[in-house]
Amino acid sequence: MEKKRLVVSYKNLTPELLELVKQKYPHGYQNHVIKITKPNGDYFYAITMDTPDASYLIKVNVKIDTKPKDEDDEKDFFGGDSDDIGTSDDSFPEESEEPIEEESNEDDFDDE
User: Fold this and answer.
1) pTM over 0.85
2) Which residue has the higher pLDDT, 65 or 97?
3) At 5, phi and psi to the nearest 5?
4) Domain range enclosing 40
């Protein structure tokens, strides 16, 4: 006897099949989604599930970011047009200042 081949929506899964999906994809199915193209050119996204009596294509909803990259959004996020880091109010140590010396313990090293 040949396995049945069925296409079913995720929202219409029986509790038993839903449990099998959770067992097969314990960390989620986001990396296992495939694109199925119909003969008329339409498509849908699905995951696969096999049981002893049937092979399933389970339709899942996929959100794809199709918005073109907008530089204005980046400018708003990163704070404007300026590529400068820091401001004119920032202060830096003067070169004339003595470097900070680390404290040394004479017992640590004995060259003699």
Assistant:
1) no
2) 65
3) -115, 115
4) 4-60
